[in-house]
Structures are given as C-alpha cells and as structure tokens.
Amino acid sequence: HVQLVESGGGLVQPGGSLRLSCAASGFTYKYNCMGWFRLPPGKEREMVAYIYSGGSTTDYHDSVKGRFTISRDNANTISLMMSSLKPEDTAMYYCAISDTCASLEFGYSGQGTQVTVS
Length: 118
Prior knowledge:
Elements lengths: L1 E6 L2 E3 L5 E9 L6 E7 L6 E7 L5 E3 L7 E7 L2 E6 L8 E8 L9 E2 L3 E5 L1
Parallel strand pairs: 2-11
Antiparallel strand pairs: 1-3, 3-8, 4-5, 4-9, 5-6, 7-8, 9-10, 9-11
C-alpha cells in the first residue's frame, strides 16, 4: 500500500507562482512513475505532468508546457513548480504513483491540494 500527501496549494494572482510537493510513503519501490493530475471545476480530470523514477523522462500537458516544471526531490518526493499561472489553472491537484506512466491514472493518488488563480 502507498500513501501520498500533497502540499503547497493556495490562492495566487494571475502571473504568480506556486510550488506543489508530494511525499510518498509505503511500498514506493514498486512504482516507477509519479505525477500530477488536476480536476478543474466543471471539467474532466487531466494529466498535468509526470516523471519517471530516474528523473530523466518527463512529460507535460500542452497547456502547461514552458510554465510548469516537475522534478524529483528524492526517491519518494516530487515537486511541481508552477509559474505564470492563469485562471484556467484553477483546479484540485492530485499526486499519483504507478508502475508505468501510461497507467498513472489507475495508480494510487492523494487527497489533493487546491490551487486557485484569481
């Protein structure tokens, strides 16, 4: 079993920045991919970014490329640096972990942290 705890959300003005963090605990050694999903109000969930365990492979949703950066702080912690935030980035952000990034949406996820850009 794996537990994920997100932190760092909040209220920020357009153009501002926030840094989200996710700490994983439990049997994390089984899983090679961690990432972030978001659920905007009234919309479907979408993958924001993911990173493989080695840290060399990352990918981003087109809408956040060049503005968001995912990084692996250590074996069990990842961060998402969000810059040039837009109102459309407003969402509940969830950390997730899985054995492959292709199956990330089916893996474990945390309780989420709210990001509001207004």
